[in-house]
Write a structure and sequence with these properties.
By secondary structure, the chain is of the alpha+beta class. It has one domain (about 25-170): Alpha-D-Glucose-1,6-Bisphosphate, Chain A, domain 4, CATH 3.30.530. About 25% of the residues lie in helices and about 45% in strands. It is built from 3 helices and 9 strands, in the order E-E-E-H-H-E-E-E-E-E-E-H. It has helices at about 40-45, 50-55, 140-170; strands at about 1-5, 15, 25-35, 55-60, 80-85, 90-100, 105-110, 115-125, 125-135. The strands form 2 sheets. The protein has a 7-stranded antiparallel beta sheet with strand order 3-9-8-7-6-5-4. The longest helix is centred in the last third of the chain and has 30 residues, at about 140-170. The protein is globular. The termini are far apart.
């Protein structure tokens, strides 16, 4: 596998190629402006806060030591999270791989295929522009790729819905 990372302009482009040269990661990326400072948005990005605004996520239990609130955002912090979706229950292990306070945080999971979730916070005139990017590979080989093509649009709708829910919580 070849991994290419370009972090110019706070954007991260990740491409993993198979030995045959075909891309195997898919990407969903959406942004929203929230009338709240980056510090307030940042607080909601801790793994144990996801269930408050991410539909289907039912709980997070830290597997790394958390002695103070900032520990939830440090590189290496990890947690088990359970997702409940239509008749399915999936457990994920997420780990923070990059963390720049109030600017950017990246989580990785290899529990069901490969998933990389990145949040980028940019200060704007009326608050924060939050970009939510998911790079993922479906498990189950060709079947997973087929299922992804069927459901990719619904994944984008879920991300949009989650961002709107977060915005509503933070702008109350």
């Amino acid at each position: 596998m070849i991994i290419t990372i370009n972090t110019k302009c706070q954007k991260e482009i990740i491409r993993i190629e198979s030995e045959e040269g075909g891309d195997i990661l898919r990407r969903i990326e959406k942004s929203i402006e929230i009338k709240a400072p980056p510090e307030k948005v940042w607080e909601m990005l801790a793994l144990d806060r996801w269930p408050e605004w991410m539909d289907g996520w039912k709980g997070a239990e830290y597997t790394s030591e958390v002695r103070k609130p900032k520990d939830k955002y440090r590189v290496g912090s990890s947690a088990h999270i359970t997702e409940h979706r239509v008749r399915t229950r999936t457990k994920y292990d997420f780990e923070i791989t990059e963390s720049l306070e109030n600017e950017k945080i990246t989580f990785r999971s290899e529990s069901m295929g490969y998933t990389l979730i990145t949040y980028i916070l940019e200060s704007v005139e009326e608050g924060t522009k939050l970009t939510y990017a998911i790079d993922y590979e479906m498990p189950w080989g060709i079947l997973g790729k087929f299922l992804d093509k069927l459901g990719h649009g619904s994944g984008e709708k879920i991300v949009e819905k989650e961002l709107k829910k977060l915005k509503n919580i933070l702008e109350k």
